[in-house]
Each structure stands twice: as structure tokens, then as C-alpha cells.
Amino acid sequence: MDRPDWVPDDVDMSVPNVARVYDAALGGTHNLPVDREMLLQAQKLFPAVADFAFDNRAFLGRAVRWLAARGVRQFLDIGSGIPAIGNVHEIARVVAPDARVAYVDVDPVAVRHGQQILADDPGAVFVRGDLRQPDDILADPAVAGLLDLSAPVGVLLCAVLHFLPDSDDPAGLVARLRDRLAPGSHVAISHGTRVEEFDAAPMDEIGGLYRRTTMPFFVRSRAEVTAMLDGWELLPPGVVPIGDWHPELGDAVRPQPAILGAVARRS
Ligand SMILES: C[S@@+](CC[C@H](N)C(=O)[O-])C[C@H]1O[C@@H](n2cnc3c(N)ncnc32)[C@H](O)[C@@H]1O
User: What's this model's pTM, rounded to 2 decimal places?
Assistant: First the structure.
């Protein structure tokens, strides 16, 4: 197929990509046939796979509204994904019209589309960056120019840490971000987990599909996810299936045992 104008030249259009498969699951328009094919294959193995994306997005929305209601006025959304409906700046500004948001993703399609839609927004930026280099993200001129690191920041790490193997030391990266942020900052995380309710074979096969992308994923136990928040003050209700995280803040929140979520505060 011809290269759409939203696909940068360095993108291999024959390889499915995590950000674009997620966009397809959410009904977005920035995905390619190879991504939709991978989503279909995943849905054959596990029909509810698109629910993961919607339920995760709903958790992120509740966390952003909750943080904004607690006074957070600047957000750093790392592994933000391809912008679609319900972006963080739109959600936060319903509560706090002056909210500022820096989006960060490694995916070139996400970055190009994000920069296009935010070009006229003085309160939001979209930069290419890698969670594995948190200091580089914070030093990026666009991020440093928008966020005041001497004031609290709400960091969003939603459905991104499970793309990092243990060898990348995800807990150490979350700790590094904590050390760079002002007291009163918060982090919201969501992370895939293995649950007994699901048959192990389909989850492993879905994992096999993701290994065809440039980003395999690594589910972790509640104890492992909780350990990523060492040194943070874990806020109620703790590390829980995302459907159990403040369901009163959303509409028709579903149970979602395959994804854990939490919000924690830097004292
Ligand atoms: C499943 S999407 C989640 C999007 C969004 N955070 C959400 O929760 O709806 C995962 C995103 O993380 C990005 N990503 C994966 N590894 C990353 C890394 N090391 N640094 C920055 N972004 C990363 C992918 O490109 C993708 O856009």
C-alpha cells in the first residue's frame, strides 16, 4: 500500500506495531492493515482483547480526573500512545482548564500525529522519548519548557511498563523519575498481569503475537507491580485490578482482572 502521510519514512509498514495495534483496538484511524490483522489474530485467541484497551483507557481517565481534582496541574504522560479521543489534556482541562501536559512516546507515528494536533496548543507538547532514559525525557527542551519540576507533576505510566523486560529495571526507572520530581508529585501506573481466570495458553499465544512486533510484553504479579512503587506512598485502594480503582469516578466500570492499576504519591 502507499505510505499514508502520517507514517514517517523510517517506519517499516510490514511489521505490526504496539502503538498502532492499540489505536486499532480503540477504533482509531492511525493503524495499518498489518496492525489490524494482528488485532484480529489476538481477538481470535482472546475475544475480549479490545476490552483491555478500553478498560485501561477508562482507568487512565479516572486517574487523571482524580489527580486534577487533587490539584495536579501538570502531567507527564510517558508511553502516551497515538492521540485519539479522550487525551489527557482534554480530560484534565474539564477539571482544571490551565492543566499542562507533556506527552512522550517512542513511536514515530504517535509523535508525528501528536505534534500535528497540538501545534496550536501552548499548554501541551508531544516529544519522542524513551522511558528507559528518564533524565533525557526531563531534559528535552519542549518538556523542560512546559513543566515546572519544582512543582508537583502527575506522571502517567499506563500500559507501558509491561513493555520493558526486567533487564531494563522498570522499578529503577520509576524510582529515578520519583527522585527527579518535587514532593507532592504523583504517579499512576497500569500493568498487565496473569490471572488464574484466564487459560494460560491463549495469554502465551497472545504474547507470541506481540513478540512479532518490536515490543514484546511481560506480565507481572501484583507483588512485582507493587515493588515498582517502593519509596512512593501508595494511595488507597492500593494496587488493584483497574476496575476496582475508584469505579465511582467513571460510568459503567467493568471488572478487568488482567490489568493492575495504582496511584502513588511522592512525599
Ligand atoms: C498500550 S499503549 C498505551 C498508551 C497509553 N499510555 C494508554 O494507557 O492508553 C503503549 C505505548 O507505550 C509506548 N512505549 C513502549 N515502550 C516505550 C518506551 N520504552 N518509552 C516510551 N514509550 C514506550 C508504545 O509506543 C505505545 O504507544
Answer: 0.94
